[in-house]
Amino acid sequence: MLIGVLITFLVVILVLYLINMLPLDGRAKQIARVVVIIIGIISLLKYLAVF
User: Fold this and answer.
1) Confidence of residue 51 (pLDDT cuts 50, 70, 90)
2) 2, 8, 18, 33: which has the highest count of C-beta atoms within 10 A?
3) What one-character-per-residue DSSP string does 1-51 give?
4) How far apart are CA 45 and CA 43, in angstroms?
5) How far is CA 29 from CA 5, 14, 41, in A?
6) Long-range Cβ pairs for the range 36-42 (8 Å, 24+)
7) Is residue 25 classed exposed, middle or buried when 0-12, 13-18 and 19+ CB atoms within 10 A define those classes?
8) How far apart are CA 30 and CA 24, in angstroms?
9) End-to-end distance of the chain based on CA atoms, in angstroms?
């Protein structure tokens, strides 16, 4: 379980880093960051057996 949580956390950080590298305007980057963070939180809650 702990390895799954760590992998999810690392993937979310990697995707957020890659979003920062994309040539998008600020509003699109902000929306993409929020979507990635929400997906990451939901997947972490699944690992912790909340859902």
Assistant:
1) low
2) 8
3) -HHHHHHHHHHHHHHHHHHHHS---HHHHHHHHHHHHHHHHHHHHHHTT--
4) 5
5) 25, 14, 18
6) 36/12, 37/12, 39/12, 40/8, 40/9, 40/11, 40/12
7) exposed
8) 10
9) 15
Q: What is the pTM of this model?
A: 0.76
Q: Each residue of 4-42: pLDDT tens digit?
A: 888 988 999 999 999 989 898 889 999 999 999 999 898
The Cα–Cα gap between 27 and 44 comes to 26
Q: Quickly tell me which residue has 């890659």 as its tokens.
A: 18
